[in-house]
Amino acid sequence: MKRRISDRPGAGCSVVWQLQNGRSRIQRGLAADGFRGDFPYAGVTVVAENKDPEENSSASIAVETVRDVFAEGVAFGVEDVLRDAFQEAAEIIREQKLSGCSAAAIAVCGTHIWYAMAGNCRIYRIDSDGVNCFVQDQSAANEINMSPDHTDYYKKIREMKWWLGSPEQGKPICGHARIKQDTTYMILTAGGWTQFENSANTIHRKGTRKTLDGWLGSVTREMKLAYRRQGGALGAVSGLKKKRMKSFPWRSSVYIAAFLGLMGFLVFANPFSRSSENSDSERTDLFFSDSSLEDIVQPIAGDTTSDAGPQEEFGLLGLVSGSQLFREDDTVEPAIIDISADLPLQMVQIGGSVPSLNPDTFSVNLNAEPDTLWENFTPGIYAIRADTASLLLAQTISLSYPGLEIRELDRIITVRENGVVESARWLSSLSPDSASSTGVIVETRSSVAGGADWIRNYAIFANGDRGDRAGEAGGFMGDSLPGLPALRNSHCYRLIVII
Predict the structure, then answer these.
(1) What confidence category does residue 338 fall into, taking pLDDT thresholds of 50, 70 and 90?
(2) What is the pLDDT of residue 437?
(3) Could you read off the pLDDT of 85-128 as tens digits, one per residue?
(4) Does the predicted model carry a pTM greater than 0.85?
C-alpha cells in the first residue's frame, strides 16, 4: 500500500492520500496523489480509477495533472483552477486516445474546501453527525436508484454516461464547502466506496483519529481492500482536532457561580452603559453595537467527541458540567468577579473590514491586507488559553463569524519598535513546539523577521498596526517562556481574528 501524509504541526488542515491495490494484477488501474500548500496556497488530494482495466495510463495522467497544477501555487480562484485541471487532464487523455478514467479531488485552503468529481467516484463527509455521502457517483446504478442487493448492481456501477476523457462533452461536478475542526472529507474510487458503504458505521464508531493518515490506514484495513479483487484509491482532508479544553482557573464552585452571576449582570444590567438611567430603552449592548441580547445569551457547544471520549462543552454550560453550583449549607452570597479592568480588550483583525463591535468592549486594530510573503497565519479566532476575558469574548466574536473556529494559544506576543533587535533574536531561536502555541503580532516600522522560514513555526506571525502604535510599549499576554525579552502588558493583544 502506498501512503502519503502531509500532517504537520501548525498546518490549518491535514491532507492525505493512499492507494491500495487488490488481488487482481489486471484490475490495478488506480492512482492517488496530492500536494500540500502552506496557507494561503491551496493543497489538494486526488484519486482516479481507469474505466478500462486493461489500460494503465488515464488514472495516472489525471492525478499527476491535478497535482502539478496545484504544486505551482494556487491562492485564488481555487474552484476554477480545479475545474480547469480536470479539463486539461481530459484533453490529454483524448489526445492520446486512451479510454479515460473516473476521478475525484478535494482542494483545501484555510477553512475552505473545493471539490471536483467525474465518473463513478464518491465524496463523503464524516463528522459528529455520522457518515454522509456528500457527492454521489455518476453511474447507471445511481441514476436509476438501483439497490445494492440487485444482482446487476456492481455491473451498473461501471456503466457511466460521462467520465474524464469521455468522447462526449461534459463537465465535472464541482462545489465549495467550509471545513470545521473534527470534520473529514474523504474521496474514494468505486472499488473503495462499494466496500466503505458496507462498513461506514462500524468505521465511524471504531476509528481512532490521532492522525488523519493513521485513521485512513485503519479505514483501508477495515475494508480489507488488499484482499479484494479491485482494491481502491482514497484521499482525505480534515480540520485539525481541537485540544482538550483546560479547565478555567476556578478554585471552587463558588467562583463558577460568581462567573455566571457576572454574565447575567453584564447582559441584563449592563454596568458599562454610558447612561446613568436604568431604563431598558437607554441600555447599550456590551458586546455588539447593533445586535440583540438574544444573540448573546445563546451558549456555544464545543466538540463532543475526542480520542479519549466526550469532551467538556466550551461555553457557559461547559463551566458547570459535572459541578454542583451550591451546597445545601451555602448561605453566603458569592462575590462577583470584576473583569471591567480587562475592557476594552485589545484585539487585532487580519483581513476583512473593520467589524461593528462596541468600542467599550473591544479595542480593534485592523490589518486589512496582510502580505503572505512576510506573514504566517491561518483563518480562525485565536484566544489565550485560561484567559477568561479572552475566551469569553472569543465566543462572542464567533457569533459574527460562525465559519471561524475558536483556537487557543498559550501566549500572544506583541513586538513594537523598542524591542525589535531582542525580539528578533529570541523569536528565531524558539523551539518549534513552543512556537506552535504562540502568536506574534508585529507593529514596527522595520522588519523583525524579513520573511525568514522560522516564522512558519508560529501559529500566527502577522502584522498589526505598524503605524500609529509602533511607538507604544510591546509585551505579551498569557504564559511566559524562559528568556522572553518582553514584560507582561495588559495593553497588548489578547485576541486575534483572522478572516
Answers:
(1) low
(2) 95
(3) 999 999 999 999 998 999 999 999 888 899 999 998 999 998 88
(4) no
Query: How far apart are the C-alpha atoms of 11 and 473, rounded to whole Å?
Result: 31
Contacts of 371 (CB under 8 A, 6+ apart): 463
The answer to whether residue 165 scores a pLDDT higher than 50 is yes
Is 216 in a helix, a strand, or coil? Answer: helix
b or e along 252-287 (b: 16 or more beta carbons within 10 Å of the residue's beta carbon)?
ebbbbbbbbebbeebeeebeeeeeeeeeeeeeebbb
Closest CA to 154 of 27, 20, 18: 27
CB-based contact 295:400 (threshold 8 Å): no
Asked whether the beta carbons of 314 and 245 are under 8 A apart, the reply is yes
**Environment class of 486 (CB within 10 Å of its CB; exposed 0-12, middle 13-18, buried 19+):** buried
Mean pLDDT of 230-244: 73
Is residue 37 within 8 A of residue 74, CB to CB? The reply is: yes
> Is the confidence at residue 248, as pLDDT, over 90?
no
- Annotate 427-449 with b (16+ C-beta within 10 A) or e (fewer): beebeeebbbbbbbbbbbeeebb
β-pair partners for 15? 237
Cα separation, 29 vs 173, in Å, equals 22
Sheet with strand 112-118: strands edge to edge: 30-35, 43-50, 101-109, 112-118, 173-178
Task: Give the chain's count of helices (H) and strands (E).
Answer: 12, 20
7 pLDDT higher than 50:
no
Does residue 68 carry a pLDDT above 80? yes
The least confident of 95-104, 182-191, 421-430 is 182-191
Per DSSP bridges, beta strands 362-367 and 345-350 are parallel
Q: Would you give the end-to-end CA distance of the chain in angstroms?
A: 39
Rounded to an integer, what is the distance from CA 198 to the centroid of its chain?
29
Query: Which DSSP letter does residue 282 get?
Result: G
